[in-house]
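User: I'm writing a short methods note and want a consistent example. For TolB N-terminal domain-containing protein, I'll paste the sequence; you return only the structure tokens, no commentary, since I'll be parsing the reply automatically.
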Amino acid sequence: MKKKIFYSIIIFLISFKLHSLEVTLTQGTIKPTPIAVTNFYSKDDKSVKIGKNISMVISDNLERSGLFMPIERKAFIQDEESLSNHPRFEDWKIIKAQHLIAGKIHKKNEKISVEFRLYDVFSQKQLLGKKYETSEKNWRRVSHIISDAIFERVTGEGGYFDTRVVYVAETGPKESRQKRLAIMDQDQANHRFLTDGSYLVLTPRFSPNSQKIT
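Assistant:
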């Protein structure tokens, strides 16, 4: 018999800071902001793939929020190398981008240095710029942190991308379900089980500061 997986209705979000997003509606629909998320540039061929992955995660995060509409990369006129020096804003106005995200990545041993800039295309000004250094395996976490920074700068609300979901996963037949505690990123990546199902789990329990699951 094939195993069926059931997920509990109650989902818990944990992060270093918990935010609630409030959106005030002034009209019937919200029109997403067109934004250009470019691949992060690198002179090192080994870092090119990581740069593309970071860019993709940021783009997906912003699109899922419903407040941004990433522009297709095939429409881009300026390439990443020249953009890493200075944006040609007219090129981005042509494709109707309101905001532009550009970045660089450099790898040294097992460490990566990730730098990004957020621009307002029509005012031709930089709105935000930050740099992060971490181990290569943390590239996805950096992507979520950058997404949060961009979201907050544009919307004025705290981001929620650097959060994780804790839930109880149920497997097996109805009369003998196995329940395991599981955790994953908010975009369903980095999924792993925290318990092996050898004891009953009804709901996650958190420490007072929400930093540990007990």
